[in-house]
Amino acid sequence: MKPILDVKGLTRIHGKSCDGCLAATGPKVGGNQCPHCGSIVACADVSFQLMEGEILGIIGESGSGKSTVIRLLYMLDQALAGGALLHGGEESAIDLMALNRAQARQLRDRHMGIVHQNPRLGLNYQISAGGNIAERLLMSGNRRYHDIRRIASELLVRTEVPVSRMDDFPGTFSGGMQQRVQIAKALSTRPRLLLLDEVTTGLDLSVQARILDLILELQRELGISMIVVTHDLGVIRLLASRTLVMKTGRIVESGLTDQVLQDPQHAYTQQLVASAL
Amino acid sequence: MNDLPLDLLLRVRQLRKSFFLHERGLGIDSSRPVDLEVRAGELTALTGPSGVGKSSVVKAIYRTYLPSGGEILYRDTAGRVESLVTAPESRILELRRREIRYVTQFLHFLPRRSTLDIVAEPLWQEGIPAAEAEAEARAWLHRFKLPENLHGVSPATFSGGEKQRVNLARGLIGSPRLILLDEPTASLDKHTAAIVIEAVREQLSRGIGMLGIFHDPELVAALATTEICMNGESI
Ligand SMILES: Nc1ncnc2c1ncn2[C@@H]1O[C@H](COP(=O)(O)OP(=O)(O)O)[C@@H](O)[C@H]1O
Ligand SMILES: [Mg+2]
Ligand SMILES: [Zn+2]
After folding, report:
1. Hey, which of A110, A125, A252, B111 has its CA 20 to 30 A from A36?
2. Which string of DSSP letters, residue by residue, matches B54-65?
3. Which residue(s) pair with A242 in the sheet?
């Protein structure tokens, strides 16, 4: 198995930051706010590899820095330190943290997809569901109207959104259906890397189940590499082959998912697992 | 260091497992140091009273538990010997897909999948085409006398006995190199026990090596070449 993504030392701090930020925060201290300068260490020294075709889970309580990692990888925010090498394709590996805005946009449009917990962050509510997918296809360089319409309807079928609703606005859809439109949009450019941030949080159980099934099918059929962020152990157990555990902006433990769940090493992971069972 | 006699698939030396419970500041030794070997085409039985740590040993070999000490050497299909204690996680995942199978007492299955898919899944992982995998899965379900009308539905609503037979079919199907069995045969009826014995023997004769924990001494007698009693020494 080859790595598709090599993440090293990813760090993001909100605020001015000082020399003492990293030492004065983290799991040992129990907080992510620097007592010297008041900055928030959203994530620090995050390192991991994602293998081709793998689903990697990131679990941790709210505020532990999971979404920060996802936003950094999707280049929505700037890292203070660290790198993330994206491998694969014809080109040599690209450091996502070293791209300018235009390069970042191009790479995102061609090779990456993201699904946010809140569909409002991922969808444009001023245009139709089909239009949302078309917009992304246009950005990735596809300009043929008929192709675009066909691909959009195929994706909606694939994600179980009634094609008859293709021209309706996302705001008129149920939460689960909006989420599936977001997934269809993310998939439209056949990304090498898909980032999923709490995509089932807050949905009804039966709706959650269908979205989780869809994610597994996509992995099996298309072999897309994914990072799945959640605070739900059940989602991790179902989807992820390996899991990272985050607390106060740091990775405190990582391992095969069954190992992390059955033989957790870190005090925090033990607590997390014990409280879920 | 990594030398393993050619006839061995797996050699475990002085393997220990202990847990540290942070909340209680407490260490627990789950198993005393154990030595065992598995040969291609043979079944090594792991026996001993309950609580002695048999399952912990099996889980440590499979990396569901992190070993606390000792050595686990494995010879893969290509003939390379590697340590299952230090192999990277990605390598362990690869071995789980292609070579090393772990079968527990209960059927763990993805929800909302047909029984046929659940039994065929290990074959997909081995890279066998879907149609062939389905035919093979069907044959194994027939072998374990699971009525045809149950093949297409999820085992979620099956009886304990039906689930157990699905579990055994999924556990024994295909061509892994090493199968770890943790009491998948608890309280089998006589008829199913006979089917299991025949199926295990057939898979052993194809060169698959097995390490098995069995409740029933009769199964040990019928299947094992070697017995490692975790209270005593090898027989
Ligand atoms: N724009 C921001 N300004 C200040 N602090 C922020 C900002 N965004 C996130 N944080 C803080 O960074 C930490 C990590 O947040 P986040 O990555 O959203 O966590 P998670 O996704 O694990 O819930 C939290 O303490 C959060 O309040
Ligand atoms: Mg979040
Ligand atoms: Zn500071």
Report:
1. A252
2. HHHHHHHHHTSS
3. A56, A256
pLDDT of residue B231: 81
Domain ranges of chain A: 3-276
| Interchain pair A255, B94: CB under 8 A | no
What are the Cα distances from residue A53, in Å, to B53, B91, B126, B195?
35, 14, 15, 37
**Cα dist from A188 to A55, A207, B41, whole Å:** 19, 22, 49
| Euclidean distance between CA atoms B41 and B175, whole angstroms | 12
Which residue lies with its CA nearest to atom 12 of ligand 1?
A: A42
Q: Does the domain made of A3-276 have the CATH classification 2.160.10.10? A: no
Residue A271 has pLDDT above 50, yes or no: yes
Which structure tokens are listed for B6?
């050619």
Q: Identify the bridge partners of residue B39 per DSSP, sorted by sequence position.
A: B8
Separation between Cα atoms, residue B57 and residue B72, nearest integer Å: 10
More confident residue, B215 or A87: A87
CA distance B89 to chain A (A): 7
Residue A48 has, within 13 A of its CA and on its CB side, a CA count of 28
Which of B33, B42, B34 has its CA nearest to residue B8? B42
Predicted confidence at residue B2, as pLDDT, reads 64
Question: What ipTM was predicted for this assembly?
Answer: 0.93
Give me the domains of chain B, ranges plus CATH numbers.
Answer: 8-229 (3.40.50.300)
Tell me what the mean pLDDT of segment A244-271 comes to: 97
Q: CB of B94 within 8 Å of any CB in chain A?
A: yes
pLDDT at residue A148 above 50?
yes
**What is d(CA A274, CA A170) in angstroms, rounded to the nearest whole number?**
39
pLDDT category of residue B234 using cuts at 50, 70 and 90: very low
Over residues B51-67, the mean pLDDT reads 95
Q: Is the CB of A65 under 6 A from ligand 1?
A: yes
Q: Do B84 and B63 meet the contact criterion of CB atoms below 8 Å apart? A: yes
The pLDDT assigned to A88 comes to 81
Q: Is the pLDDT of residue B233 over 70?
A: no
Amino acid B235: pLDDT:
40
Distance, CA of B204 to CA of B45 (rounded, Å): 13
Contact A163, A192 (CB under 8 A): no
* A15–chain B Cβ distance below 8 A for any pair: no
**A&B contacts, CB < 8 Å:** 45
Q: Residues A103, A105, A106, CA angle at the centre, nearest 5°?
A: 65
Does position B86 have pLDDT exceeding 90, yes or no? yes
**For residue A12, pLDDT beyond 50:** yes
> According to the model, what pLDDT value does residue A251 have?
98
> Cβ–Cβ of A262/B65 closer than 8 Å?
yes
User: If you measure from the C-alpha of residue B25 to the centroid of ligand 3, how many angstroms do you get, rounded to a whole number?
Assistant: 32
Instruction: Round to whole Å and give the CA distance between A143 and B194.
Output: 65
Asked if pLDDT for residue B222 goes beyond 90, the answer is yes
B148: helix, coil or strand? helix
Task: Round to whole Å and give the CA distance between B216 and A203.
Answer: 46
